[in-house]
Amino acid sequence: MKFKENHKTALAKVLSDLVQCDGIVNQGEIDFLQRVYDTFGITASSRKKATTLSLSDAVSLLKTLGNHEKIAILRLFQTLSLSDDSLDLNESLLTTALLLSIEIELPETQGIKAHFVSIPNLNFDTHNAVLYVEAEYDKAVNDSLLRDYQAICKLLSNAQREFFYLPVVMHELNNKRTTFLQALSYIEPTLSEDQLDLIGSRIGIMNSAFLSKEIFLNYLNANGLNINRPSFFFRIGDKNTSNQQDFLILEIENEPLSTLQHFFELKDNIVNLHPVGLSQKDERFLQKAMSAPNVAEKDELNYTGFHKILIDTVLKYTGSHEASRLYVTKRGDLFLTDRNNTEVKMPAMSKALYILFLFHEEGIPLNYLSDYKPELYRIYRQISTYGDNALLNQAVDNLTDFVGNTLNATLSRIKKAFTDILGSDAAPYLIQGNRGARKTIHLERRLVVFEEKGVFE
């Protein structure tokens, strides 16, 4: 089996997410992961780098493997899912989603196609939502959805999911328009009467394709993923450790109900699949990774999300005073590698300006920031979710031309992002300088690591 270093990093990412998807990490899962890491040669460095990958990035890397290696991954997933003596609903769903997304070739997966995507938070937190999306209105699929609507809702309800078919949602709002608008006036008191009237007049006239584009597909297109077929849109996982969420896009083949039935049939039988094709040598290799170690009985601790909060809090206030490495992903996300890989969260424009200053160790006079406009635009275009070039240009113009308080607000957000984590230790990471002089980031550049620096150039 051929696993390159980037494949090992991607494997570490998906295994880690699979372990954590039920909210608890126990000793059996920890022991299994350690055996896999030892057998596959997944180093501590690779595991750290894995935390900076999005799930969709990891899946894209594993997709390039041969089917031989993908079958081995299936075996690992199956063993890991049962290493805690139970199969959680989220584990089986994530396992199924991962296998479909890496495009494993099995008789059971024929005729079903899915993709993973990691996109910015969509400002709805219904983790059990399943939505129908389409780029162009498909009458046949929409007719089928309406015909089988109750059966689809029942199927998803049995899987602890709720179906949101936007035309039905809008139709219900239209039927209860008066009640809805009254509630809206209390929930959103800043809305004017004219705005409420506009909302009321437009309820019921928007089809699923329009709503799909406006609410979801614009985010996907900005990240380079085009949806060419009507699809179901699943939120995957319940973790909110970053500003991104993971979704599975399940393409509809033939009819929506039969597509979902096929998907859930696969999910319900995922640990019972018995793919063949591995050589005896590969079987021995996998058995080494999956066999129980000979260790003395030890006390076990279930590690939950609450423990993660405690650890992050301790590190925030009692961490080492030595400057941490700063890892910059190709999407502009910033991580303090030696502070438990804590993410430094800030808006996209703040990230873009910060990266610009990282590139210019000699510093930049703020009065001459407009000279760096083309470079700042390239960086911002790489990391922003805006798909409209005019909006990108306008945002950069506002910052570099000192429109309003944009620059000062952006610099303040950068400072707050680092000081919230590092307190008084944040100084080397901040953009600083005397009034009228060059502003610079004093962090030693040997501590700055770019995942792929060239994407910003």
Give a written overview of the molecule:
The structure is a single chain. With 457 residues, the protein is α+β, with helices and mostly antiparallel strands. 50% of the residues lie in helices and 12% in strands. It has helices at 5-20, 27-40, 44-50, 55-62, 67-81, 89-101, 139-147, 149-158, 166-175, 177-187, 193-202, 208-222, 256-268, 280-290, 305-318, 348-359, 373-383, 389-400, 406-422, and strands at 24-25, 114-120, 129-133, 162-164, 231-236, 244-251, 303-304, 326-328, 334-336, 342-344, 364-365, 431-432, 438-441, 448-450. A hairpin with a 5-residue loop joins strand 9 (334-336) and strand 10. The chain is globular, with a radius of gyration of 25 Å.
- Rg, rounded, reads 25 Å
Number of helices: 19
Major sheet: 5 strands, mixed
| Beta-strand content | 5-15%
- Share in helix: 40-55%
DSSP strand tally? 14
Oligomer: single chain
Please state how the strands of the largest beta sheet are arranged side by side: 2-6-5-3-4
Q: Uncertain regions: pLDDT < 50 for 5+ in a row?
A: 293-298
What would the principal axes of the Cα set say about the shape?
A: globular
Question: Which structural traits does this protein have?
Answer:
457 residues, 19 helices, 5-stranded mixed beta sheet
Summarize the structure.
The protein has 19 helices and 14 strands. It has 457 residues and is of the alpha+beta class.
